[in-house]
Amino acid sequence: xxxxxxxxxxxxxxxxxxxxxxxAHGLERWAPLLPPLAAPGLGEGNTPLVQLADGVxxxxxxxxxxxxxxxxxNRVAVSAAKASGARGVVVASSGNHGAAAAxxxxxxxxxxxxxxxxxxxxxxxxxxxAYGAAVLTVPRESVPALARRVIEEFGYHPVSSFxxxxxxxxxxxxxxYKTVAYEIFLDLGEVxxxxxxxxxxxxxxxxxxxxxxxxxxxxxxxxxxxxxxxxPAAGGPLATALxxxxxxxxxxxxxxxxxxxxxxxxxxxxxxxxxxxxxxALTVTxxxxxxxxxxxxxxxxxxxxxxxxxxxxxxxxxxxxxxxxEASGPVVCVATSSGFKDSATGTRSYPPMAADWDxxxxxxxxxxx
Length: 369
Fold this sequence. Notes:
- Helix 1 (70-83) crosses helix 2, helix 1 (70-83) packs across helix 5 (173-188) and helix 5 crosses helix 6 (203-217).
- The protein has eleven helices and ten strands.
- It is globular and about 65 Å long.
- It has 369 residues and is α/β, with parallel strands linked by helices.
- The strands form two sheets. Strands 1-2-10-7-8-9 form a six-stranded mixed sheet, with helices on both faces.
- Helix 3 (122-130) links the parallel strand 4 (112-115) and strand 5.
């Protein structure tokens, strides 16, 4: 079992007015509760909390600079690379993590190597290419050994996990993610009753839990919300770990379009977040995620399929429990990334149509509402 490094702080030295300062983009605002921000930022964070018709709130992380929550992680992880004098950064990702790492490395003046799949989504591939990262499309099973050689021989800093027995991730990753909890707390003016989080390896899940836990350590809150991990039903390593009483598990993964959170192996931090918050791990099907994504589109938010897992988990949880909602407080679903990041997005163009009024009018009559 591989356990990740945990970061602690002198909470008694945190400025008393930190949570009373004006809202601003950029993680600099939270510097007293973060590792050193040695690399410049891109205005990450301070994303909107959007209320749906039934009172559920959506924390829309697609509004970050590279359209996903991974910008928070990479601001602190690339800072670690910069502060340690690394000659570059290396990441294994065919999605949001690779796009964000390439952006923040470019901003810091560092080269970036991305181990990616040849079938990465078009928008992600465009990000990585635009930032000049080296794209390495080797078979997945070869990545850990090759990445270690990149680290050892080129002096690059790893900003993603290359452990094999369990996922550990970069130790600073959840430190960036915990700012999601700070912002939710400030926007609501209270701790929500529950937070539903799209979950792959569990780093975002742990970060959100840690952020709320720190609010209790600072005396700003008297509890943490229940955290619900929302995994694809095609896998579910965290749900399996909790069900079997293990710190982490490896499971077979079936076909799913939710590539961003389709993981065979879990991590210890996800188990901690669920157990300490009194929450649970939920599994959702592609159909449930598609329905949740359609619901968000109807509210003006277009997210990738993986990103809709939080809302899908909430809807499935309520259906299973028979409850209309959480009775004692607001509920938040985290939406992690833009619909541009889906694997199918960008692969087809608008079909041509006849330039006559009947065709145009027929298209308008087909619109809902």
